[in-house]
Q: What sequence folds into this?
């Protein structure tokens, strides 16, 4: 096993307070990207 | 009055039916034809497969909901398509066969004005010899029934490991052309964490096996993504996670045969190898359902409707990978030969793969087929429903609503372990789903800020929130339509 994620990174990943704010941030960001619209790719002359 | 028939009641079919019913007056008929009696929220099968969620939590019966909402439901499977009717029936119809006890085997011509084919894929286990869920120690999480069996198999192994047995676990793709690597990726991370919780992690060797040429390809040609303040490739991110969790990997592997505890595979390098295991979860190849179509004189016109999956407004001209364009992908999911037939979600034939096709030295195709996920299935179903609604209301064909996978974002919230405080998730959001190398030539065809990855507890909460939100939406509870696809 190679530890690729440092203890500090792991702390940040699993800290519920940090992650609560991350949850809010991610929810909004994903909502904007996914629900922010879609369309075609072919231009109509 | 118009009659809209929807084949299938999965994510795509159910989304189309619910929007049509909400927006169309009651004089218009919405009919769902599906052999399944239940709706299932497939993304949560992962948790059923590790025993953290009962399958009852991810499904509900369709008949009472449809009755309440004024949607006609026929528990039947489509057999063949007659888009011009026949000698005795003037209207186009689908021949369907009932599957319920009281009507089993009875066939009916289900006529329509508009047809939405949302039949999804056939799980083609037969394409790999010996790959049958629940046999040869192989399992699947593709349906809730499969996931229930997978948990039974895994739990038995965990109990044996507690008695001192050393075990090998193999998770990934079960065919050289499989897709949905994301589901297998979720499952391997969840299994790994469950073994920790049962204090048997050190008794197991866990191996990822996949037809991807690189980790993190996911059938999407991989991606360049933002991760915190860094920019990294998806293969680097997945490699980091696997190494950190001591998961071994075999890539560029086309599994072609399964025996009891033994997987045979061919590598891109042309070698034929085997891998032993005590428990395996392998995703099968997907295929079309093999439907036939006939004209009014009952001549076979299957090639006008199907190319494995259903033909839609894509560019199917065969061309080399270098000439593939995002413009090849469909925008309206309308069949070009019969304008009142649509195929959103997984039912449409993709113009080509997304990942670069690769062959082994022996000439075997070993590369992922294009992935088909819930989010674009819902979005494409809604836009098809909206175009039909506009056409009915305006009295003329309308195709204003468009949604190419090359101009649409998707979020893949991959659970990496269950638990309110100990869970984890890998959130990967990509925009667009099909890379647009003309628009984003320097970032592997995707917009960097909108293509990002995150790992942590928030990912688990997000997946759990989506589970509850989408089941609420599927049950058509008050204001369900405010929740986006």
A:
């Amino acid at each position: 096993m190679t530890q690729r994620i440092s203890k500090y990174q792991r702390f940040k990943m699993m800290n519920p307070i940090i992650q609560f704010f991350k949850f809010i941030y991610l929810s909004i960001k994903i909502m904007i990207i996914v629900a922010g619209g879609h369309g075609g790719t072919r231009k109509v002359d | 009055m118009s009659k809209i028939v929807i084949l299938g009641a999965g994510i795509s079919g159910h989304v189309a039916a619910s929007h049509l019913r909400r927006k169309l007056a009651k004089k218009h008929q919405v009919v769902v034809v599906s052999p399944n009696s239940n709706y299932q929220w497939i993304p949560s099968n992962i948790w059923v497969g590790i025993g953290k969620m009962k399958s009852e939590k991810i499904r509900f019966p369709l008949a009472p909901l449809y009755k309440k909402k004024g949607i006609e439901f026929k528990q039947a499977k489509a057999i063949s398509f007659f888009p011009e009717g026949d000698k005795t029936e003037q209207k186009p119809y689908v021949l369907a066969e009932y599957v319920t006890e009281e009507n089993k085997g009875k066939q009916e011509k289900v006529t329509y004005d508009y047809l939405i084919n949302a039949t999804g894929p056939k799980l083609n286990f037969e394409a790999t010899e010996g790959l049958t869920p629940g046999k040869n120690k192989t399992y699947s999480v593709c349906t809730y029934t499969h996931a229930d069996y997978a948990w039974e198999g895994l739990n038995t192994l965990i109990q044996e490991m507690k008695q001192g047995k050393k075990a090998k676990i193999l998770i990934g793709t079960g065919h050289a052309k499989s897709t949905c690597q994301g589901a297998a990726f979720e499952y391997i991370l969840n299994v790994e964490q469950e073994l920790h919780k049962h204090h048997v992690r050190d008794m197991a060797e866990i191996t990822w096996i996949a037809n991807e040429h690189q980790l993190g390809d996911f059938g999407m040609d991989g991606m360049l993504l933002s991760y915190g303040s860094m920019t990294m490739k998806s293969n680097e991110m997945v490699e980091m996670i696997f190494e950190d969790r001591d998961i071994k990997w075999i890539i560029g592997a086309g599994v072609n045969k399964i025996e009891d505890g033994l997987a045979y595979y061919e590598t891109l390098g042309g070698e034929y190898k085997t891998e032993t295991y005590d428990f395996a979860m392998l995703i099968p190849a997907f295929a079309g359902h093999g439907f036939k179509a006939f004209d009014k004189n009952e001549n076979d016109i299957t090639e006008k409707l199907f190319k494995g999956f259903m033909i839609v407004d894509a560019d199917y001209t065969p061309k080399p990978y270098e000439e593939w364009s995002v413009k090849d992908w469909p925008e309206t999911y309308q069949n070009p030969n019969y304008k009142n037939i649509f195929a959103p979600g997984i039912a449409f034939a993709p113009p080509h793969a997304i990942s670069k096709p690769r062959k082994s030295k022996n000439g075997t195709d070993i590369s992922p087929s294009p992935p088909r996920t819930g989010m674009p299935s819902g979005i494409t179903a809604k836009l098809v429903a909206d175009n039909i609604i506009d056409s009915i209301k305006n009295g003329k064909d309308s195709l204003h609503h468009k949604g190419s996978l090359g101009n649409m974002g998707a979020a893949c919230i991959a659970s990496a372990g269950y638990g309110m405080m100990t869970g984890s998730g890998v959130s990967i959001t990509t925009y667009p789903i099909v890379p647009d190398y003309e628009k984003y030539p320097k970032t592997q065809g995707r917009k960097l800020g909108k293509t990002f990855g995150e790992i942590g507890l928030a990912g688990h909460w997000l997946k759990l929130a989506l589970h509850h939100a989408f089941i609420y939406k599927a049950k058509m509870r008050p204001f369900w339509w405010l929740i986006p696809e």
Observations:
- The interface with chain A takes residues 239-241, 243-246, 326-327, 329, 331, 375, 379, 383, 402-404, 406-411, 421-422, 424, 427, 429, 431, 436, 450, 452, 454-459, 461-462, 465, 484-485 of chain B (CB under 8 Å).
- The domain at 3-122+287-400 of chain B is CATH 3.50.50.100 (FAD/NAD(P)-binding domain).
- Residues 250 and 322 of chain B are 27 Å apart (CA to CA).
